[in-house]
Amino acid sequence: MALVVRTMDDTTQPGALPTAFLFAGQGSQYYGMGRELYERHATFRHWFGVCSTGVEARIGASIEEVVYAPREDRFAPFDRTLHTHPAVFAFNYSLAQTLLSEGFQPDALVGYSLGEFVAWTIGGMIELDEMLDLIVGMAELIETHTEAGGMLAVLARPTRFAEAAGVELACRNYAENFVVSGRPDDLERLGAALRAREVSSQLLPIRHGFHSALLDPMKEPFLRMMRGVRFRDATRSIFSARAARRINADELTPGFCWAVLREPVDYEHTLEVVEAGGPYLYVDVGPSGTLAAFTRIGLGPGGASRALPIANQFGRDLDNLHRAKRAARGESA
Question: Does one domain contain both 191 and 115?
Answer without folding.
Answer: no
